[in-house]
Amino acid sequence: MMNALKLIRTRWVFLIFIFMMVFSCNERSLQEIEPSGFTSPPDSVRIYAWWHWMVNAISREGITRDLEAMKEQGIAGATILNVGDIMEEKDYGVPQVIFGSDEWFGMFHWALQEAERLGITIGAHNCDGWSTSGGPWITPETSMKSIIWSKSILQGSKPVDTLLLKPSGRMDYYEDVAVIAYRITGTPNSFQQENPHISLNDMEVRSLYDGSPVSGIEIQKNENVLIEFSSPFPAGKLLIHPRVVFSWSEVENIGCDFSLSASDDGKNFRPVVSFRTTGVNKNQEVSIPHTEARFYSLKFENSSESSIEITELELLGSNENPLYNPAIAHHMDKIVSSKPIGGSSMFETSGGEGIRILDRNEIMDVTDHLSAEGRFTWEPPDGTWEVIRFGYTTTGAMNLPPTEAGRGLECDKMDTAALNLHFNSFPAKLIETAGSLTENTFRYLFIDSWECGYQNWTKNFPSEFERRRGYSILPWIPVLSGEIIENNQVTEAFLHDFRLTIGELIEAYYYQHFARLCKANGLEFHAEVIYGGENYPPLKVLRSNQYVDLPMFEFWTNPDANGMVRNNPVENTGYVTSAEAGQLYGKKIIPAEAYTGYAYYSEAPWDLKPFGDRAFCRGINRMVLHSYVHQPTEKKPGMTLGWFANHFNRHNTWWPHLEGWTTFQARVQYLLQQGIPVSDILYLEGDRMPQYQP
User: Fold this and answer.
1) Distance of alpha carbon 617 from alpha carbon 78, whole angstroms
2) pLDDT per residue over 32-45, tens digit each?
3) What pTM value is reported for the model?
């Protein structure tokens, strides 16, 4: 026990132990186990499957045969997910059925009719693809949004009348939020004073030195960024900010290779330096041999990522600082703009001498001096002034992986109007098509795992922030561009409030509102809610699961180096958010996306069983097979989910023998679904955002 306590104390959260405590989620008493229910499990405790309809290759005959095959092997329910992108849309031996067409909805209705005949429950994902909630009906105005800005340096004591540098929005969409000014010491660096022309593929990209690392250019391997000065420019170092908003890899390990060359005429270039950066989403300074030239060319040579963004780029003297020079440690992590390094980076505070700290009383709101056309007229007091123009744009996140007809932007997760638009554009049409089959055969709508990146702004964010936190965001908005106001402690407190507001808006206006929409239409809501950690926006994870009728988890059966599925025993079963939420909020059934893997055709039930056993020990009590891929024809081995998933379909050679294993799982689920959870530990998550699970 002492070793266990020592281990637990290393967690950053506060733990409370409650011994001899029965932690039951509701008032139900222990039910008597019926032998008949165990030997012949009812459909209510049998397993489900995800039913992927691939790249428009759908047939009525295939639907019927799929559902009959599921019924024969003991599968009681199926979730329809229409998927594209990971396979080519072409002729697979049946006529193409385009997502969202009358013919597609006809196929959906046929599936419901056949499912009703066989006694199978049907659900459907809420959009094309498996992530997350979007489609072609979503415009940039109703999409997920991000705060952006641009910085300008102005001299005081004289009237200013200029077009203020506009932040670089995505998809030609941009809305202003505020213009803030404060006095600084010093003068602009030499790069800013020269105001060079920067281009990629002959397109000017002024955003590469606007002081904002959230806007820039996407660059492919072997492309060159050209920097042109009006006269020879001396440089002793290069500042670059490589950006990868999200990667399943660890962002601190992402390497990028570049080469810099120089020219006097823009035609004949000489090499200056080749270098490698390690890590992204942060400034990287590279010392270069002293060089003086009119033209510089930066070539992106290689990276572990297929493409990256460059969002800041400046050539500087050895002792100069770039315009984007954040005083806040791990600034981009803390404003939920890109994937953070990990849990520790979110809670490290800044420090050290020479860090600029702003006095809140000297920060001026000069928004009224900006016209609708972007003209800025102001007479600043004496001194040098940094003026920041804040606005927002779309994140550009799209649903994944869709067919071409279903591709579109992700809806704003902090705006119920955007979610209503999305719901009415597709889920409501499923409900209309189902008609009288809604609530009996067609039982639920589904939101799969969050794979749409990060969102940190919405149109009403300032008013929502003030309503929830009790103070205006505007005097503190320079923090979002990397500035410290008053001191570290107060600044970090504001950043916590900022992330807390993001989490509350996603919780209330996405998950809770989607639950209301489902309930209003007689459907259950099933979902894999954000799990917590660095791969997702901040969210009160357990609390958000309460709105879901069946909160889901997932587990994988990754193959070894030889492509074979092998289970490796572990010392502990780990933490399952949905299972803990089930206990806390009285959810009797806790499903899991089960046995997810890669398409090697090397797996059999014998190999997969230990993974399922472990999941049962972690609190899961309904398996949802990943995946049954729709088979529109009798060609074998048949359709797959690209390189994903194990092969639970009627064309697999061991499919006719599956019923024994599915019945075994149903018997386990019959017992687990009637049990009363008993917990020995109460884990207090604390108030840090984002939340990191033990």
Assistant:
1) 24
2) 788 999 999 999 99
3) 0.92
